[in-house]
Amino acid sequence: MELSVVLLFLHFGAALILLTQALPYSPWLTSQHHGPLYEGVKLLVADAEFQAGLTWNETEFQLLEAVTAMRDTQTVLDDYETLIEERLNARLLATRSKSLYQHCYLQHNYVIANFEQELTFKLQSCRAMLTKTLAALQNESNIELNFIRGAAVEARNVLNACNVAELRGQESNRDIAGITMCVLSRIGALDQRLSAASENFLDLLATENAAEVEGNSCEEFDELRQLFDSVYDDISECVGERDV
Question: What is the pTM of this model?
Answer without folding.
Answer: 0.70
